[in-house]
Amino acid sequence: MMTLMNTLVTKLAWRNLWRNHRRTTIMLLAISLGIWAMIILTAILRGMMEDMSERSINSLPGHLQINQSEYLLDPNIENGFSAQPQALLEFVAADVELTMIERLQVASVITSERDFRGVTLIGLDPVAEPLDRLGIELIDGRELGSESNGVLIGRRLAERLETTVGRRIVITTQGLESATRERGVRVEGIYQADLASAEESIVYSSLGFAQSLTQATDRVTEIALFVADEERLELVQEEVDKLIDENLTLRNWREIDPYLASMMATMNGFIVVWIAIVFIAMSFGLANTFIMAVFERTREVGLMMALGLKPANILAQVLIETLLLLLLGVMVGNALAMLTLFLFRDGLDLSAVATGLDSIGMAPVLTPSLSLQDAVMANLVVVILGLLTSVLPAWRASRLDPIKAINSIS
């Protein structure tokens, strides 16, 4: 008997939903567009966040970074370090999802025949740290090798120095014991970076060349650790912190770049605010729709109650109508969102309308990224809060007096 009644209530809810095609279609369109807007903007913001995070982390600091404690206060070659604990090397070697990279970073002056510029010279292992990880692309010349004695410079720096591949330049820097070190080198390649500012300020060399230039054999200023799964970051940080010497400091990327971390937190908050704004706008229309639907069917509701339909069945009928409408809107909205994301799977080219993206760590092409968590949250918010919005009109309908309802003029 209960199953039969539930089936009857569901059928009535479905038929009542389409008695006013225009109103239902408009509301269905509003829900669909609301879901679409939630998912698309969330995907764009999430893509922006992931792009900024990936470029910032890969461009230098890594997920984790080890420095001499004094280096954080006075970043010069004197405060580098050379001995890596054997336990750390074994830990990294045993974890296939963990990559360790050594670098030597020192402030320098680069001079050509025409001009000079202050830059940061970064000595690294070109085999362990390829160009794509650094977020740069070679546009002229050749890549560095492990034994290279040349340098890679940015396109903008090459233009300012009026130099090119094969030309000789002079690098002046500070070596150990505050000795000024100077060496003439060849430009082996010119790169183009995702961040235009990097093209003017960063010069790359092999780690061996940088150590030779500064007379800092086997010395580095930082060790960067990259974690394949960032969800393991906290666990890896705890383990690595136990393995390094007391005079070394371990920091994660949020501590290295608090500006980026705060921006990520702000964007996460904006996603929640955006979903709330869209839903609030949609909920007014949803509540108004069902209040009008109940008002128009006052006599019908009274007649059904007079024929024996219980208030609980009336309440269930209105809630089922709401649920059916919400589910239809969610399905259509998700389909539209997936289609939109598919069409823009290669990214949105923003270079024509935004020339300053590189200043905040963004590339001119933005690829939307939709996580399962964001999609589920948007859908659940609409369905659950949508049902709550319809509780009041449903409750009013279930509390109607049958005689007064039948005699009312709709």
UniProtKB/TrEMBL annotation:
<keyword id="KW-0449">Lipoprotein</keyword>
<dbReference type="InterPro" id="IPR051447">
    <property type="entry name" value="Lipoprotein-release_system"/>
</dbReference>
<dbReference type="Pfam" id="PF12704">
    <property type="entry name" value="MacB_PCD"/>
</dbReference>
<dbReference type="GO" id="GO:0044874">
    <property type="term" value="P:lipoprotein localization to outer membrane"/>
</dbReference>
<keyword id="KW-1003">Cell membrane</keyword>
<feature type="domain" description="ABC3 transporter permease C-terminal">
    <location>
        <begin position="275"/>
        <end position="402"/>
    </location>
</feature>
<dbReference type="InterPro" id="IPR025857">
    <property type="entry name" value="MacB_PCD"/>
</dbReference>
<protein>
    <submittedName>
        <fullName>ABC-type lipoprotein release transport system permease subunit</fullName>
    </submittedName>
</protein>
<keyword id="KW-1133">Transmembrane helix</keyword>
<dbReference type="Pfam" id="PF02687">
    <property type="entry name" value="FtsX"/>
</dbReference>
<dbReference type="InterPro" id="IPR003838">
    <property type="entry name" value="ABC3_permease_C"/>
</dbReference>
<keyword id="KW-0472">Membrane</keyword>
<feature type="transmembrane region" description="Helical">
    <location>
        <begin position="376"/>
        <end position="395"/>
    </location>
</feature>
<feature type="domain" description="MacB-like periplasmic core">
    <location>
        <begin position="24"/>
        <end position="242"/>
    </location>
</feature>
<comment type="similarity">
    <text>Belongs to the ABC-4 integral membrane protein family. LolC/E subfamily.</text>
</comment>
<feature type="transmembrane region" description="Helical">
    <location>
        <begin position="314"/>
        <end position="343"/>
    </location>
</feature>
<keyword id="KW-0812">Transmembrane</keyword>
<feature type="transmembrane region" description="Helical">
    <location>
        <begin position="270"/>
        <end position="294"/>
    </location>
</feature>
<feature type="transmembrane region" description="Helical">
    <location>
        <begin position="26"/>
        <end position="45"/>
    </location>
</feature>
<dbReference type="GO" id="GO:0098797">
    <property type="term" value="C:plasma membrane protein complex"/>
</dbReference>
